[in-house]
């Protein structure tokens, strides 16, 4: 059985960069039981279609779990040797946290980063890099960019390997 060289992998890239396909390939290469932890919410019909298409594209060899907020709790519940859990994606999870009243995003982010080293399952986390562009024009967008940047730094520090994907090409940044 093939194994990834580490248990915690962070895959970062822009929208439609190929990061999810790359992460799915890493999961498949392990030979482990595959679990897909989807954080997206279907706010409209287009998103419902997108979620449906992604599920169809993955096929029956994945067990899908949809959890927009309780990421740490779900990872803990799924934790088991011989499993690989793909979390897709952290920026949608962050969006969900920001939409909830009273969430302490810094604490939620720190809790996720602290949990990763304690898990026995292999975990691959995917996220959108949003800090490479211009300064957003409104406060919520700036807050999102700032929260994402801090979250990404914490996850990258906790990960064994970090990849940046652009135009379908992965660049190994750590590990």
UniProtKB/TrEMBL annotation:
InterPro entries: CobU/CobP (IPR003203), P-loop_NTPase (IPR027417). It is an enzyme of class 2 (transferase). It catalyses: adenosylcob(III)inamide + GTP = adenosylcob(III)inamide phosphate + GDP + H(+); adenosylcob(III)inamide phosphate + GTP + H(+) = adenosylcob(III)inamide-GDP + diphosphate; adenosylcob(III)inamide + ATP = adenosylcob(III)inamide phosphate + ADP + H(+). Keywords: ATP-binding, Cobalamin biosynthesis, GTP-binding, Kinase, Nucleotide-binding, Nucleotidyltransferase, Transferase. Signal peptide: none annotated. It holds the Pfam family CobU. GO terms for molecular function: adenosylcobinamide kinase activity; cobinamide phosphate guanylyltransferase activity. Gene3D superfamilies: P-loop containing nucleotide triphosphate hydrolases. Its EC number is 2.7.1.156, 2.7.7.62. Pathway: Cofactor biosynthesis; adenosylcobalamin biosynthesis; adenosylcobalamin from cob(II)yrinate a,c-diamide: step 6/7; Cofactor biosynthesis; adenosylcobalamin biosynthesis; adenosylcobalamin from cob(II)yrinate a,c-diamide: step 5/7. Belongs to the CobU/CobP family. Catalyzes ATP-dependent phosphorylation of adenosylcobinamide and addition of GMP to adenosylcobinamide phosphate. This is Bifunctional adenosylcobalamin biosynthesis protein. It comes from Rhizobium paknamense.
């Amino acid at each position: 059985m093939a194994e990834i060289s580490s248990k915690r992998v962070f895959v970062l890239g822009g929208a439609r960069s190929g990061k999810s396909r790359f992460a799915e390939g890493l999961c498949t290469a392990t030979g482990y039981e595959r679990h897909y932890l989807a954080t997206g919410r279907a706010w409209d019909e287009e998103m419902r279609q997108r979620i449906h298409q992604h599920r169809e594209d993955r096929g029956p060899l994945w067990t899908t779990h949809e959890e927009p907020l309780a990421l740490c709790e779900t990872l803990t519940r799924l934790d088991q040797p011989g499993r690989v859990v793909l979390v897709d994606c952290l920026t949608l999870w962050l969006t969900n946290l920001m939409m909830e009243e009273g969430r302490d995003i810094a604490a939620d982010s720190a809790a996720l980063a602290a949990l990763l080293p304690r898990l026995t399952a292999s975990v691959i986390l995917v996220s959108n890099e949003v800090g490479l562009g211009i300064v957003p024009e409104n406060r919520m967008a700036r807050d999102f960019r700032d929260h994402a940047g801090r979250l990404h730094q914490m996850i990258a520090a906790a990960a064994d390997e970090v990849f940046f994907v652009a135009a379908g090409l992965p660049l190994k940044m750590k590990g």
